[in-house]
Each structure stands twice: as C-alpha cells, then as structure tokens.
Write a structure and sequence with these properties.
Elements: H1 2-12, H2 25-42, H3 46-53, H4 60-66, H5 75-82, H6 85-97, H7 99-109, H8 113-124, E1 133-134, H9 135-145, H10 150-167, E2 175-176, H11 189-195, H12 211-224, E3 235-240, E4 256-257, H13 258-263, E5 266-268, E6 277-284, E7 289-294, H14 296-304, H15 308-328
Antiparallel strand pairs: 1-2, 3-5, 3-7, 4-6, 6-7
Helix pairs in contact: 2-9, 5-15, 6-8, 6-15, 7-12, 8-15, 9-10, 10-11, 14-15
C-alpha cells in the first residue's frame, strides 16, 4: 500500500508552468469533459489532472502525420522501407545475440522467432527508434483535436493514464510514436495493458528495457488473436485467368476455400489443398499488380496492424531473416 501511495504521489507531483490554453478552445472543452469523466469513473483527482495536462502542449504535427501515413504508399515504395538488406542483417544479428531467449519464448508461445524479430524490426528497427513524441501530449492532441479518430484516441489516453498509475510510470517522461504507441514493440496503451507480459518475473511489464518482456508480449498478442502454431504457410503467390477484382479481400481474412477460387480462375503458385482457407489480395508493383493467397496466420499479423502492406512487409522480412540466419548458422 505504501508503494502504491508513493507512486500516486509521484505520478501527480507536477507544477503547472504551462497552460492548457495552448490547446484550441474546442480541444480545451473536450479536455475538461475527459478530466471529469476520469474523476468519476476512475477516481483521478480532477485538479491534479488539470495540472498534468497543463504541461502537455498542443502538437498539430501528429495530426499532419496521420494525414500522410506510410501505409498510403503503393507496395513497391512501401516495401523498401522495411524489407531492405540493412533490416535483414539487423534481424540476423538480433537472432544471433538472443538465441537462448528467443528459443525460450518460441517454445512457450509457438510463434516463430523470425516473426517476432521482423515485427520489432518493422516497428522500431529492433528497438533503435521507439519514437520521440511525448505520449501524453500526442494522445491529448489526437483525442481532443482530431475529430476523425477522437473516440479512439480519447480511449487510448484513458488507457495511458491507467497504465501509468498501475505500473508506476511517469506520463510526462514517456515518448512514443505519432500515434502514441509505446516501447520496442510499439503497443498502444490498451494493448500494453491487455497483452504485455512480465516474462522475466521482475514484477514489471517492461516494454522499453526488457527483451524478454518485449518478445513474450508480442507473442502473447499474436496468440490471443488466434495464431496457429501448426500452420507454417502464411503467403502463397498467385495468378489469375481473367478478372479477379471482385474476389479481392481488403482485410486479408481467409474466407474462401482454394477450390472455390480455382474455379474462378485463380491459380496458386504452390500446391494447396482444396479445403485450405485463403484470401486473395493484390499489392501494387512497379509495373503490375502482384497477387497473393494469404492464410490464417497472415491475417493474425494484420491484427497487430490492420494494413495488408504491413503484414506483407513483416512476412517477407521474416522470410529473409530466417533464410540468412540458417545460411550463417
């Protein structure tokens, strides 16, 4: 109890040397409603929250970043950002340096090491770039000043404050992405609270400094979103006889049997069972569209980030890392 009280006191020991007037009037109104709600539902002290937000400045740059995300690029421009030789080498080095830890995590959860490595490679270059945006200010700006996603980001701000209180974290000290994602695996606050794991049993779910916690948390996220440890195929190249646009999936959820698509002129580049469930996706190549049949575990990767481009980058980077690691071992 004394530790909890000390954490709460430390959490709220802030001085209001800036003002919430830095936010537009409409954002300040939304902020006040949010503060009263946090007081009513979660027992936060309203005056202390106002002091806390007084130190969070308006950040229009994060709104601009949301208006031009990397996922809006065509595949042939998106892919080189993440599936590059430097990223492959970094992934192989990470695997070599953390063999024992990766073995223990993969044995427990059943997610291949190359997938875990590729995810943190795409997210933060293996922990080298976790973001320089102050999370509190970022989430406040998006939650109170970005109407298109205000509901989502207001909830993430709520989850962030609860996370800081529960874990004894300092909200003003934490930096992350332009979307308020945290740590090496870039978990949004609700995912941090729901899926993070204290793998090293030190009493802290540390996604900033504990690789064990990071890798186990990514694994736990995927497993709880349906990862199938028995399924090894994620992507199969495909081609089409004639039209196929009405068959394309926007989500990657495997809702067709292979035999059905074959009957519609879709050919798999590798042998697949008639009853295998897949989705047909198309990615924009430099000269023509590239067709793929994607399987269940590919769809699970999209639960981490709903972009098909993201999931394909993770898949292809993972494959390259595994090939190079096996070649060098």
């Amino acid at each position: 109890m004394q530790r909890l009280i000390a954490s709460i006191v430390l959490f709220f020991s802030v001085a209001a040397f800036a003002t919430a007037s830095e936010f537009p009037d409409s954002a300040k109104k939304a902020m006040n409603v949010f503060i009263e709600d946090m007081h009513t539902r979660h027992g936060f002290d309203a005056a202390q929250l106002r002091n806390l937000f007084a130190r969070a400045s308006w950040r229009p740059q994060v709104i601009r970043a949301h208006q031009r995300p990397a996922e809006s690029l065509p595949w042939f421009k998106y892919r080189p950002r993440f599936v590059a030789e430097k990223s492959v080498r970094g992934g192989v080095e990470f695997w070599e340096q953390n063999r024992d830890l990766l073995f223990r995590v993969t044995q427990r959860y059943g997610v291949p090491a190359e997938i875990l490595i590729a995810i943190i490679g795409v997210e933060t270059r293996y922990g080298a770039h976790t973001g320089g945006h102050p999370v509190l200010a970022t989430l406040a700006t998006l939650g109170f000043g970005y109407p298109r996603r205000s509901e989502f980001y207001s909830r993430q701000l709520e989850q962030f404050l609860l996370l800081c209180r529960d874990e004894g974290l300092q909200p003003l000290a934490l930096e992350g992405s332009y979307a308020g994602a945290l740590g090496v695996p870039q978990f949004i606050p609700s995912s941090y609270r729901d899926f993070s794991v204290d793998f090293d049993h030190d009493g802290v779910r540390d996604l900033f400094g504990s690789l064990g916690d990071v890798l186990a948390s990514v694994s736990n996220y995927l497993v709880r979103n349906g990862w199938d440890r028995e399924q090894t195929r994620r992507v199969t190249p495909a081609s089409a006889d004639g039209g196929y646009r009405e068959l394309l999936s926007a989500s990657g959820e495997p809702d067709h049997r292979v035999v059905e698509l074959r009957g519609r002129g879709i050919r798999a580049g590798q042998p697949l069972a008639d009853d295998d469930r897949v989705a047909l996706i198309a990615l924009e190549g430099e000269s023509r569209e590239q067709l793929y049949l994607v399987h269940h575990n590919f769809y699970v990767i999209t639960r981490y980030n709903h972009s098909l481009l993201y999931a394909m980058a993770v898949h292809q980077l993972a494959e390259r890392i595994r090939e190079e690691f096996q070649r060098s071992s």
